Prior knowledge:
The complex is a heterotetramer of chains A (about 550), B (about 90), C (about 220) and D (about 325).
Chain B: H1 8-29, H2 36-56, H3 64-88
Chain C: H1 16-51, H2 53-60, H3 65-90, H4 94-124, H5 140-176, H6 186-211
Helix pairs in contact in C: 1-2, 1-5, 1-6, 2-5, 3-4, 3-6, 4-5, 5-6
Chain D: H1 15-46, H2 63-91, E1 99-106, E2 109-114, E3 119-121, E4 123-127, E5 132-138, E6 143-147, E7 152-156, E8 162-166, E9 172-178, E10 191-196, H3 198-206, H4 218-228, H5 231-235, E11 253-255, E12 261-263, H6 266-274, H7 297-315
Parallel strand pairs in D: 1-5, 4-10
Antiparallel strand pairs in D: 1-2, 2-3, 5-8, 6-7, 6-9, 9-10, 11-12
Helix pairs in contact in D: 1-2, 4-7
Amino acid sequence: MSVPTRKADYLNVDYGVRSWLFTTDHKRIALLYLIVITIMFAIGGLFALAIRLELLTPAGELLQADTYNKFFTMHGVIMVFFFLIPSIPAVLGNFLVPMMIGARDLAFPRLNLLSWYVLVVGALFALWAMVTGGVDTGWTFYTPYSSTASHTNVIPMALGVFITGFSSILTGLNFIVTIHTMRAPGLTWFRLPLFIWAHYATSVIMILGTPVIAITVALVGIERAFRVGIFDPALGGDPILFQHLFWFYSHPAVYIMILPSMGVISELVTCFSRKRIFGYTFVAASSLLIAVFGFLVWGHHMFVAGQSAYASFIFSFLSMVVAIPSAVKVFNWTATLYRGSIAWDAPMLFALGFIGLFTIGGLTGIFLATLGIDVHVHDTYFVVAHFHYIMVGGAIMAYMGGLHFWWPKMTGRLYPEWIARIAGIVIFLGFNLTFFPQFVLGYLGMPRRYHVYPDEFQVLNVLSTAGASILGVGYLLPLVYLTWSLRYGPAAGPNPWGATGLEWQTPSPPPPENFTQAPEVRDAYDYDTGLAPLPEGARG
Amino acid sequence: MTHGVASPRVCLTIWALLLLFTAITVVVAGIDLGVMNVVVMLAIAVTKALLVILYFMDVRDAPQLTRIVVASGFAWFVLLVAFTMADVLTRG
Amino acid sequence: MADGGARHLAHHFEDLEQQHQAASLGMWVFLVTEVMFFGGALLTYVVYRARYADAFAHASHHLDVTLGTFNTVVLITSSLTMALSVWSAAADRRRTLVGMLSATMLLGSVFLVVKGYEYAHKFHEHLVPGPFFRYPGPDAPEAELFFSVYFILTGIHALHMVIGIGCLAYLLLRARRGAFTAAWSTPVEMVGLYWHFVDIVWIFLFPLLYLIGRHA
Amino acid sequence: MSRFALMPEQASTVAGEVDALFLSLVGVTIFFSLLIAGLLVRFMLVYRRRSATDVPPRLHVPLWLEAGWSIVPLAITMMAFFWGARIYAALVSPPADALEVFVVGRQWMWKMQHLEGRREIDELHVPVGRPVKLTMTSEDVIHSFYVPAFRVKQDAVPGRYTTVWFEATKPGTYHLFCAEYCGTLHSGMIGRVVAMEPAEFQAWLSGAAPGGTRGMSVAALGEQLFQAQGCASCHKAGAAQRGPALEGLYGRSVVLADGRTVVADDAYLRESILDSNAKIVAGYQPLMPTYRGLLTEEQVLQLITYLKGLGTEAES
Ligand code: HEA
Ligand code: HEA
Ligand code: CUA
Ligand SMILES: [Cu+2]
C-alpha cells in the first residue's frame, strides 16, 4: 500500500474478496450495500432514460408498446424495492447507527450480513426476470392483470420482491434491537441524533409493513402458479382486496423512503449552520407520528378504484393529518438556520435542495389527498410528478447530501468540493426541468403509463426529456469524482466538518471496533458549547 | 440470570386449561347461537392465545418493552382488518 | 457452566445480560413480523368470510373436525413440552431437556402427518382449488375461495412447523452435548417463543376454518 | 382540443369547481414554497459563516411557534379536505333523472350501450345539459374511464358494477382515456366523448345503429334473452313456475332464506343471475342454475334492464 504507516482501520484490517464477502463488520457491509445499490440505480436510471426518450414523440416510434410497459415496470420496481428503500438505511444507516450510539456493531452482525445476501438474491431474481423477458404489470402488480392476464415473468419478479422484503425486515429488526439495547451509557433517548430517531421510526414501518407486502406478492405468485383463485373476480374474489393489501405496505413504504432522508437533513442542517436543531422534541416525535399515522392512509391510492365513498372520506381525512408532522419538520429545519453560522458546502446545498423540493412534492401530495382533485389527477402525470419530486428531488437529494457528508468518514478522503457543488446545482436544475412540466401535463389529463399520447402534450414532454438528460449528467458527476477521490482525494482527518456526532470522535476511516477509546457522550447538537471546533484550515 | 420461566406445575395447569377451552369451543360450535357463535369462538381463541403468551412465553413478568411489542403486533393486525372492512362493509 | 456462560458472549456486547436482552427483543420483534405475515393472509379470510358467510359455512363442512380437534390437542401438548424444555434448560436438567425437545419434535411431526393426510384426502375429493376443483354443493366458486384460503393459511402454518422442527433438531443435537445450562440457554428460549407462536396461529385457524359451519 | 394550454378545457358542471379548488391549492403551494425558499436563501446570505470561530446563539423554542406552524397547515388541509369531500360527494351520487348508459371495458376497447339500443365502440355520444350516468364493468382486467374535460374518472372493475356521472356543459369532442394500466395497448384504449345539443342527440339516438341490433332497445334485447335463456320457464306465472315473480322486484327489499333482507339493486340482480345461489329468496329452493360464464357482461346488463322495466309495468 502507498501509506504503510496507516493505522489499522476497517478498510485495511484485512484484504481479499473473502474478507469482504464474509465480513460481519457493519461498516464493510454498508459498503457492500453501496455497491449493489449504485448498480441498481444505474439500471433503473437507464430504464428512465429509455422512457424519456420514447416519450419525446407522441407516436411511440422508439419502443414497442410491450417493451415500454416492461421498461416503466422495471424502472419502478428497481428504483423502489432495490434502490430507494435500501438506500439510506442500508448504506448510511448501517454505517452510522452503531457509531452514533457509541456501539461496536449492530446487535446481530451475522444477520446483518445475511440481509445483504438476501437483497442480492432478491435482486438476482429481479434481474433474471428482466433478462428473460421482463415484466409488464407496473410496479403495483395490480390483479387481475398480474395474476391472470399478463404473459410476462411475474412470478420471478414477485419472488424477487418477496425475498428482498426479508432483507428490509432483518435490517429493521437489527436497528430496533440495537437502538434499544446498545446505546452507550448516558446516551438517553432525548440525547440521540435525529438520524437515529428517523431510523428507529423507519424500522418500525419495516417491521410492521413489509411482511404484508411479502405475503401479498406471494399470494399473487401462488394464484398465478397454481391457477387457484384468491383475487379472481370469476370466483367472487375481490381485486380491490389486493389493492388494500398492497397499499397497506406501499404507502408506509414511502415513509420508509423519506424518513431516513429526513434524519440525514437534520444532521446536515445543524452541522453546517453550527446550531442546535430547532425544536428537537418536535422533530423527533414527528418521525414517530409519521410512522404510526402513515399506516392509516393507504386508501388514498384507491379513491376511484371502487372503494366505498365512506372509506375514501376517512382515508382522505387522515392523509391530511399525516402531512402535519412533515410540515413541522420543514419549519424546524428552516428555523434552525436562523442566526446560524452557515457554510455553503456541497452537503448543505443538497440539504437545501431537499427542503425546497420536498415542500413542493409534499404539498402536491395534499392535492392528491383532496378527494375532488384526485378523481381528476389520479393515474396522470400529476401523480408521477408528485412522487418524483419527493423521491428524486427529496430522497435522492438527501441521500447524495448524506453520502457527501459522511464520505470522508467512510473512506478517509475528501472529494473536490467545487465539482460537488456544481453537481448539486446541475442535479437541482435538471430535476426541475424534468419533472415540473409533468405537473402541468397531469392536470391537463395525460394519463401515466402511456406509450403513445395525443399531440398537444408533446411540448411539455420534450421539456421533460431535455431535463432528464441534464439530470443524468448530474448523477454521473458524483459517480466520477467520488470514485476519483478514493485514490486521489486528500486525507480527511477525523472531523472535517466540526460536527458533534459520536462518529466524528474516531479516526476516518474508523478502526474495526469503531472507537479506540469510549466516546465522550453528550447531547446530539452541542454546537453552541465550542466542544466540536472546526478543524484547522476549514472554510470560514 | 433468572428470567421468570414458568414452573412445570404452572405449565401443566395452563395446558389443562387450554385443552378445556378447546373442548368448550368444539362443543359450542355445534350449538346454533347465530352471530354469537363467532363471538364466542373468537373470545375463546383470544383467551387461549393470552394464556400461551402470558405463561408459556413468559410475558407475565417480561419487561414493559416486550409487552408493547406484543401488543403492537396485534394492534396492527386489527388495524389492517378494521380499515379494510371499513371499505368492504360499506360498498354500495 | 464453569465459565458462567461467558464464552457465549459476542465481542460487541458488554455482558451476557445485554446480549440476552437483545436476543429476546429481537425474537419478539421477529414474531411481530410473523403476525403481520399471517395477518395479510388472514385478511383475505376475513373479507371473503364476511361476504360469503353461507358459502364458507357450507364449505367448512368438508373439513374433518375430528382430525382438526386431534391436531389442536397435539399442538397444544407440544407447546407444553416446549415450555417444559425451556424450564429444564433453565433448571440445568439436561436429560429432561433432551426428552422434552424430542417429545416436542415428535408431536410436531404427528401434527404434520395428520395435516398431510387431510391434504391427501382433499386432493382425492377434488377440493384443491384450481382446474381440477369439483364441488358438490351450491356456491362452487365461493367454496373454491374458501379452499384457497384454507390451503394458503394451513400451508404457511405447516411450513412454519417444518422450520420449527428443524430448529428443534438443532437444539436437540446441541442439548445432548450439554450446550445449554442454567447460565446460558438463550437458543432454547428463542425457539420456544417461535414454537408457541406457531401454536397460537393454529389456535385461531382451527375455529376459523373448521368450526364456523358446524351448527348450520 | 389540440392547442397548447396550461389548463384543460372545462366542459362539465363540476369542472369549474374542481379547478377553483385546484387553483386555491396552487396558491397555497406557491405561498409556502416561496416562504420556505425565501427564508432559506435569506438565512444563507445573512448568516453566512464569517469566521471559523463563530459560536451561534442557543435559541429558545417558543411553544406558540411550534403550535402555530402545526395548526395553520392543519387548518388549511382541513379546508382542502372539506371542499374536496363536497365535490366528491356530488361525484358519487348521480341524480335520479340521469340518462343511463352501460359501459363495458375490455382489452382494449370501450363498449357503450344506450338504453334505446344504440351501441358504440370507443365513442360516447351524450346530450349537453342533462346528467348522464354510466354503469360500468369490465370483462377482463381493471380499466378506468377518464374524461379530463369533465374532471371525472372511475375504474371499471371486473366482477362488479361501478358508476360515474357527469353533466356536459359545452357541445364538443373530448378525450376519453383509459387511466388504469391494463396491458399492451393501454395507451391505445382511448376514444372520444361527443357532447351534443339535446335535439341533435335525440336525432342521433334514433338513427340507424350499426350491426344487427338496429332500433332494438336494451330492454327488448333483455326480454329476448329472458325467453331464450329459459328464465321465463321458471319465472313466468303459471303451473311450471318455480321461481319468484320478478315484477316490481327492482328497488324492493327481498327477504332471504337466512333471514337477512337485501335491497334488489343492480348488484343484487347481477348476483342473482350470475351466482344464483349466493342469496336464496325466502320460501324458495336453490334450483336456479348459475349463469356465470354463460352470459356476457352486456347480456347481463340487458337482462337487468329488462327486469327493471318489469317493475314499472307491474305498478301501472
Ligand atoms: C417518498 C415517497 C413519498 C412521500 C413521502 C409521499 C408523501 C405524501 N403523499 Fe405520495 N406518493 C408516492 C410517494 C410519496 N408520497 C408515490 C410513489 C405515489 C404513487 C404510487 C403509484 O401509484 O405508483 C404517491 C401517490 C400519492 C397519492 C395517490 C395519488 C393517486 O394515485 O391518485 C396520494 C393521495 O393522497 C399521495 C399523498 C401524499 C401525501 C399527503 C403525502 C404527505 O406525507 C406529504 C407531507 C409533506 C408536506 C405537506 C410538505 C411540507 C409542508 C410544508 C412545507 C408546510 C405547509 C403545509 C401545508 C399547508 C399542508 N401520494
Ligand atoms: C426511487 C424511485 C425513482 C427514481 C429515482 C426515478 C427516477 C426517474 N424517473 Fe421514475 N418512476 C418511479 C420511481 C423512480 N423514478 C416509479 C415508482 C414509477 C412508476 C412506475 C409504474 O408506473 O409502475 C416511475 C415512473 C416514471 C415515469 C412514468 C412512466 C409512465 O408512467 O409511463 C417517468 C417518465 O418520465 C419516469 C422518469 C424518471 C426519470 C427521468 C428519472 C431520473 O431521475 C433518473 C435519473 C438517473 C439517471 C439518468 C441515471 C444516471 C446514470 C448513472 C448513474 C450511471 C450510468 C450508467 C452507466 C455508467 C452504465 N419515471
Ligand atoms: Cu384499459 Cu388501460
Ligand atoms: Cu400513499
